[in-house]
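Record type: ASSEMBLY
Status: queued
Input:
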Amino acid sequence: MEKIIEIKDLKKIYGEGDATVHALAGVNVEVSRGEFAAVMGPSGSGKSTLMNILGCLDRPSSGEYFLDGRDVSKLDKNELAEVRNQKIGFIFQSFNLLPRMSALSNVMLPMLYNSHEDLSDEQARQRAEQALISVGLENRMHHLPSQLSGGQQQRVAIARALVNRPPLLLADEPTGNLDSHSSVEIMEIMHELHRTGTTILMVTHEPDIAQHAGRVICVKDGAILSEESGDSPCLRRDIK
Amino acid sequence: MKARKIFQSAWEGLMLNKVRSFLTTLGVIIGVASVIVMLAVSAGTEASIAEQINSLGANLVIVSPMRGVPGAAKTLLIDDYYAIKEQTAGIIGVSAEQSPAPQTIKGNGETLDSIAIIGTTSDFPLVRDYQVEFGRYFSTDEDERGAKIAVLGAGIAADLFGDSDPVGQTITIASTKVTVIGVMEEKGMVSDVDYDGRIYVPINLVFDKFIPEMNIAGDRVRTIYIAAESPEKIESVITQVTSLLSDLHGVEPNSADFSVQTQQDIISTQEATTAAFRDLLAWVAGVSLLVGGIGIMNIMLVSVTERTREIGLRQALGAKPFDVLAQFLLEAVILSLAGGLIGVLFGIGGSTLFNMLGTMRTEIVVGSIPLAFGAAAIVGIFFGYYPATQAAKLDPIIALRHE
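Status: finished
Output:
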């Protein structure tokens, strides 16, 4: 099956000499197109470092990272920004909506930096509206984030992540700031996205949430522990 | 990212905090407005000096005691005037002037206090290009006799006699009774001199009656105005007068106790003074523009810190370092240009207002508008650049974690 993520012997080293820390000590991961995978691991495991590199926010010290068929491990800041814009949709724990902009304007934001498609204002707005409709917010488009519930805000963030039609969604604790009812809502949307072919990589420390994914990648001490579907050591030990 | 979209996000950034944006521009507004007002004030001052000098008459050579030489103020005498009048070629008239302290005037039952009395000679209307409206001016003979006669400024005539004819009437200047023989045409205020509010009398009457204490070493005059026949004759008149007076005073022409100037000389001297003054004002205004720029930089730095998380998010969504730089730089430039625009309006408005209220004469220097506006733009780019680079340099991972 076609790989959307393929990392080989990925290392991330901080500091020099005695103070050297191997945040990632040679990691290999593959994620196929259309997969829904969870990433789990205790804090300090290297999970955040891995996600930053997968999200093209950071570069590895060594190793290769193929994203959608392209080696992105040695790109410069501008190229990484383009990759983030085109290939990745981010969903954050704290939503990260701009507080004084309407839901619609927030969703339009990634298209502001989209230099690949020459979208007119009208096209951009229509696309943002469609994205909001797809997450069930057709009646909240002109609300400010402060006028929306947490679950609704996260749905705006999902719409924003989808609007440039990236092949990969990276969700960092998407339900971490939500009550259980909203969490269920968000996970339903994630499932729906998965069913329609979106590749999702989701960081979580909640086993309930992780079990929504078809696969759990467990990170510990800068390495991947297990690759067993549904029965990861992270789930067994219930690591927080 | 298209230029228009960068502009749009910069504009939105500013509109999110309207009050702060306005306060930030205030420094630039004041700076730009003061540059324009300051330059308008000094241009107005220059213009009114030039007008004043030119209103003295045409093709004038002006002789006055040399300033700054001890005792020089006492050296220009009525005899010098007679000598010039008799011995200079190429002139159409000479007028000597001297005035006592302002006097109280009575006439036709009215009393006026503090009226300027100008002692002149018979050529005064001709030399000073200031004509008699009714009656006549006095003759050389009347002047030399110190005849008790006077010609009234138009304003004085109206104040004392209203609509009735003042010619032939008697008025009292201090305790001296004089006969009115004429009324000057209306000339109005030229710069700060009210020509209509003065009384013109023979200079010898001034010597006899109003300043006898100045008589000790001969009758001193304040200024001698010489009207040359044509502009071409001015040079020759200067040479003749300089040599004549040097002989009379027994001094070398290059260390003379008198000065011989043309109107253009006086205007140039005055302009040199006002230019220094104007430069000083322009610098002061420039400094306030600089302070305004520092204000912008300060607020932009605060804004970058406050919006660190927003910057991190924009970076995560695909903003390149240049996009972030452009957004923040443009915010600073928009602030300073808006400040510049409002400042130009205030500057023009303020200058016009000063003029209308009569506080100060101002003349808006057209070149000062693009100058001040351009300076504001440069200030915006210069002081906006550092905060913008700080924003562009942010690491998205750290910025996203920022609280």
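Annotation: Residues 103 and 156 of chain A are 6 Å apart (CA to CA).
Annotation: The first helix of chain A runs from residue 47 to 54.
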